[in-house]
Write a structure and sequence with these properties.
The protein has nine helices and seven strands, in the order βαβαβαβαβααβαααβ. It has helices at residues 12-23, 36-47, 63-76, 100-128, 140-143, 149-169, 187-190, 194-202, 212-222; strands spanning 3-6, 27-32, 53-57, 82-85, 131-136, 174-181, 234-237. Strand 1 (3-6), helix 1 (12-23) and strand 2 form a beta-alpha-beta unit. Helix 1 packs parallel to helix 2. The protein is globular and about 50 Å long.
């Protein structure tokens, strides 16, 4: 099978995608910014599927760090065939009170981090004339969300980046798509007060949050031969929220 890099894969959606792609038979590279122990645990789960696994720590917002990591991955495993740009952060706050560094930090990781990895790995894929890239956006990148101007802007940017990259890389056999999840079960949603959870659920047609494994299944499809003629698309997985 192939070699898959998943950024921000120490927990949540990233970890679920890493394990699903390992189950599909791909060798796995797990990226984390700081949660080394959690990344190592996810790596062990992936190895149980009999594939090669690397767990590497680097900041996707740092172009030079990305360049170094991608070169090391090529030397250790080979040219990546799959890239999942999942790493992301939030620094929520109302627009008129948001500090400039709150805005800059989110754009730096969520959007520029996606650009950094897409450019570096995309160049390798273009030379190999094969590859599939999946960028994690969000429904709030489509609908917007009060208190998340920075996050919404970053995820809207990911959609524009995805569509532009698909047009540029398609002729060289590289597909680029995005997934826009809605409310997904996570450490963040687990600690929300019941009234906040109920308000969230009232907006969702299916009356439940999604599971990380459900997003992982979409990533598995988009990176498979079953999606060989799909590029430049945004798959919304929000239970009917928007």
């Amino acid at each position: 099978m192939g070699i898959a890099i998943i950024t921000g894969a120490s927990r949540g959606i990233g970890a679920a995608i890493a394990e699903k792609l390992a189950a599909d038979g791909h060798d796995i590279v797990i990226n984390c910014a700081s949660s080394v122990e959690k990344a190592a645990a996810v790596a062990d789960q992936c190895r149980a599927h009999g594939v090669r696994v690397l767990a590497k720590q680097w900041d996707v917002a740092d172009y030079d760090a990305c360049d170094k990591a991608v070169k090391e991955i090529k030397e250790e495993l080979g040219v990546p065939t799959i890239l999942i740009n999942n790493a992301g952060i939030t620094r929520d706050g109302l627009l008129v009170r948001m500090k400039p560094d709150q805005f800059d930090a989110v754009l730096s990781v969520n959007l520029k981090g996606t650009f950094n990895m897409l450019q570096l790995v995309g160049a390798m894929m273009m030379r190999a004339k094969a590859g599939s890239i999946v960028n994690l956006s969000s429904v709030v990148g489509i609908s917007g969300n009060a208190g998340q101007a920075n996050y919404s802007a970053s995820k809207a940017g990911v959609i524009g980046l995805t569509k532009s990259a698909a047009k540029e890389l398609g002729a060289r056999g590289v597909r680029v798509n995005a997934i826009a999840p809605g409310f997904i079960e996570s450490d963040m949603t687990d600690v929300l007060p019941e009234d906040v959870k109920n308000a969230m659920l009232s907006q969702i047609a299916m009356k439940r949050c999604g599971k990380p494994e459900e997003i992982a299944s979409i990533a598995s499809f988009l990176t498979s031969d079953a999606a060989s003629y799909i590029t430049g698309q945004v798959i919304v997985a929000d239970g009917g929220m928007i």
